[in-house]
Design goal:
Bound molecules: alpha-D-glucopyranose
Structural class: alpha/beta
CATH architecture of the largest domain: Alpha-Beta Barrel
Helix content: 25-40%
Strand content: 15-25%
Number of domains: 3
Strand order of the largest sheet: 11-18-17-16-14-15
Shape: globular
Largest sheet: 6 strands, mixed
CATH class of the largest domain: Alpha Beta
Number of helices: 22
CATH superfamily of the largest domain: Glycoside hydrolase, family 3, N-terminal domain
Number of strands: 28
Radius of gyration: 26 Å
Length: about 750
């Protein structure tokens, strides 16, 4: 093999392994930056300071309940220092001009936006991209998102959303990285690195904002904005690490969540914002509320009015008020009454001005608002090509069993008659998923287009919508059934539209919406080779499909290049490698269900009535965390430990041989789990501690090795100190969380 290729492969391997260790490079303002902003603060009036603590939306987009019309007048009056939901080089330049030419101190505006999975080119939804388990790819997705956003005049994006979530009724699981703390932490880090790069002065990098701090994903009953109630131990062990990983990676800002923690809404919660964020984590960046979450503390019942909400928020450490106009309306009075101090105001203004300083906006306020650069960057071929690769790798093969003696997938490219049916089949808008922000729907490649392109003019590909996403209209069934009758292969594109997951989109029933299930069953009765394509924002309860359909591809909402990527996988141009990062329940009744609960004192035993179970359904999920098939198969053997005992500050090697026993090359995500068998508090039955994505040619075997450090076994012990405890540990390796081989190691004092 040529030297250059070896070097490339080694550097890729190093990049991949490096990307699986958490770095510690939190944001630290330089003395020069601090000096600059402190000097500026000394020149500012109280009104100008309060203006810098205010963030308003433009009227270009609506991402919350209220909208203000006169934000341009507010800019001119120095009453607002940051604007969100405004983009393009032209429009940001127009608004920036008002701030830097018509205000007294000419302080530039900061432009923020929800770039959640791409800006104009849309990548797979975050839950989808998490199923790649590929940190380098996820970092690249973020890098390209930042490039397009920065070229469109944006300085700051409200991402990564890192809320660990174990309840698929909650629509915002689509915006996150699933149920696991360790994987979610690595993904949080990858996204911050992709957005902020290594130098914020680079005009193609932007400030990141980790959200929603904290534990928003644990909303009771999966109902958005609902109460969060958990122990401090669960908060620290399960929910906080991904936020910390983002901050340790240098994330510049934090967004407070709508929910309360321990009875206090996050936007006024000093335990979260002072004790944990500022004191324990030494966070030096900016804290912004979520959309009017400050005002909402009145509805929470923690304050009597908005003025008191502002005082609670500033005393807790909120720097910037998103859309609430609470600081705008009441802070001057609160100061006069001695409820808050000038020092607190100066501290908040400092953090806002540091954002603008770090981006170089005081040097050149228009550096992000360059129309020529925007035109050259948006939809660049390298970005579009990468979007297709990201989409391919996000697809999870859930089932591919023989139908009349042979597996249906991958489909042969010489098939002549294809019937493509379903509300997602010829649909651009929903391919982009929710939170597609400025995504260009007209650029989205539909599944129909993708399949037609892949098969060329020789094949006849016919489409029928069949039904809609809601309601009970079955009039479209007849046309769809007729099409299917005349086809060699039937492809059913079913799932959720983009509004059926995401914010304010909780669902109590997680089946296929509307009459899609009836349509699937009607088509299935025809006995044709049938492939199910699922496009959904969250895990669904698809037990009938899992039981009856021979082939199921989980394609989520894959973004601009969805149709091409789905065709690539359907016809075997890419062998699917994705693995689920969120458990699929059999029934809503099992929720919350995730791969690593506690064992309990009466773990399920089929022979014993008095054990933890349901009368009417199995405890087991439909598809477990870490699950995903390939068009080839893999065997695992010869698991080994390089020793049986671990000491303090030590590490142990664990390895296993993985063989591709099929006849196609394929990628496999080898997963490492550990169980602490006895602890001073009860411990989960397993925890993900490592993974490696490997490519194996047909027949090839690789030995996959992991290093397990003593500190990897640490947890919040009975007295809440974070450390490992001596004792036995079960080390597990496998293809998913429910299929592992295991060995025992002992940690000795
Ligand atoms: C929304 C979301 C938050 C988003 C913000 C600005 O309500 O909760 O994720 O960044 O408002 O649009």
């Amino acid at each position: 093999m040529k030297k250059g290729l070896i070097f490339a492969l080694i550097s890729l391997l190093i990049l991949e392994l490096k990307s699986q260790t958490l770095i510690k490079q939190p944001y630290q303002p330089s003395p020069k930056a601090l000096e600059f902003v402190q000097n500026l603060i000394q020149k500012m009036t109280l009104e100008e300071k309060i203006g810098q603590m205010t963030l308003f939306t433009s009227d270009w987009d609506v991402t919350g309940p209220t909208i203000r019309a006169n934000y341009q007048a507010d800019i001119q009056a120095g009453k607002v220092g940051s604007i969100f939901n405004a983009h393009t080089a032209e429009y940001t330049r127009k608004l920036q001009k008002i701030a830097v030419e018509q205000t007294r101190l000419k302080i530039p505006l900061l432009f923020g936006y929800d770039v959640i999975h791409g800006h104009k080119t849309i990548f797979p939804s975050p839950l989808a991209e998490s199923c790649t388990w590929d940190m380098a790819l996820i970092e690249k997705n973020a890098h390209y998102s930042a490039k397009e956003a920065a070229a469109s005049g944006l300085h700051w994006i409200f991402n990564p959303m890192v809320d660990v979530a174990r309840d698929p009724r909650w629509g915002r699981v689509s915006e996150g990285s699933g149920e696991d703390t360790y994987l979610g932490s690595l993904i949080a880090q990858a996204k911050v690195k992709g957005y902020q790069g290594s130098n914020l002065q680079d005009p193609f990098t932007i400030l990141a904002c980790v959200k929603h701090f904290a534990a928003y994903g644990a909303a009771q009953a999966g109902r958005d904005y609902h109460t969060v109630d958990m122990s401090e131990r669960v908060l620290r062990e399960t929910y906080l690490p991904p936020y910390k990983a983002a901050i340790d990676a240098g994330c510049f800002s934090v967004m407070t969540s709508f929910n309360e923690y321990d009875g206090v809404p996050a936007s006024g919660n000093a335990f979260l914002l002072q004790k944990i964020l500022r004191q324990e984590w030494n966070f030096k960046g900016l804290v912004v509320t979520d959309y009017t979450s400050m005002n909402e503390m009145v509805a929470h019942g923690i304050v009597a009015d908005e003025k008191a909400a502002g005082e609670l928020a500033l005393n807790a450490g909120v720097d910037l008020d998103m859309q609430g106009a609470v600081y705008y309306n009441y802070l001057k009075k609160s100061l006069a009454e001695g409820k808050i101090t000038e020092r607190q105001i100066n501290e908040a203004v400092k953090n806002v001005l540091l954002a603008k300083y770090e981006l170089g906006l005081f040097t050149d306020p228009y550096r992000y608002s360059d129309a020529a650069r925007e035109k050259a960057t948006i939809f660049a071929p390298e970005i579009m090509n990468h979007a297709r690769i990201a989409a391919q790798k996000s697809i999870v093969l859930l089932k591919n069993e023989p139908f009349r003696g042979r597996k249906i997938l991958p489909l042969a490219k010489n098939i002549q008659k294809v019937a493509l049916i379903g509300p997602l089949a010829n649909n651009q808008e929903d391919m982009l998923g929710n939170w597609r922000a400025a995504g260009d729907i007209s650029k989205a490649v539909t599944i129909l287009q993708g399949i037609k392109e892949a098969l060329g003019s020789n094949a006849e590909v016919k489409y029928a919508k069949g039904c809609d996403f809601k309601g009970n209209d079955t009039q479209g069934f007849e046309e769809a059934i007729a099409l299917a009758k005349n086809a060699e292969v039937v492809i059913l594109a079913m799932g959720e539209n983009q509004a059926q997951s995401g914010e304010a989109a909780s669902r109590s029933d997680l089946g296929l919406p509307g009459v899609q299930q009836q349509l699937v069953e009607a088509i299935y009765k025809l006995g044709k080779p049938t492939v199910i394509l699922l496009s959904n924002g969250r895990p669904l309860t698809i037990s009938w499909l899992a039981e009856n359909a021979p082939a199921i591809l989980e394609t989520w909402h894959l973004g601009t290049m969805a149709g091409k990527a789905i065709a690539d996988v359907l016809f075997g141009d890419y062998n699917p490698s994705g693995k689920l990062t969120m458990t699929f329940p059999r029934s809503v009744g099992q929720i919350p269900i995730f791969y690593n609960p506690k064992n309990t004192g009466r773990p399920f035993n089929a022979q014993d009535k008095y054990t933890s179970k349901y009368l009417d359904i199995s405890n087991e999920p439909l598809f477990p965390f870490g699950f995903g098939l390939s068009y080839t198969d893999f065997s695992y053997q010869n698991m080994k430990l390089n020793k049986n005992q671990l000491k303090a500050n030590d590490e142990i090697g664990v390895s296993i041989e993985v063989k591709n026993i099929g006849n196609l090359a394929g990628e496999e995500i080898v997963q490492l789990y550990v169980q602490d068998l006895v602890g001073s508090v009860t411990r989960p039955i397993k925890e993900l501690k490592g993974f490696q994505k490997i490519l194996l040619q047909a027949g090839e075997t690789k030995t996959v090795s992991f290093k397990l450090k003593t500190q990897d076994l640490a947890f919040y012990t009975q007295d809440m100190s974070f450390k490992p405890e001596a004792g036995k540990f079960k080390v597990m390796i496998g293809t998913h969380s429910n299929s592992t081989q295991d060995l025992i190691l002992e940690l000795v004092d």
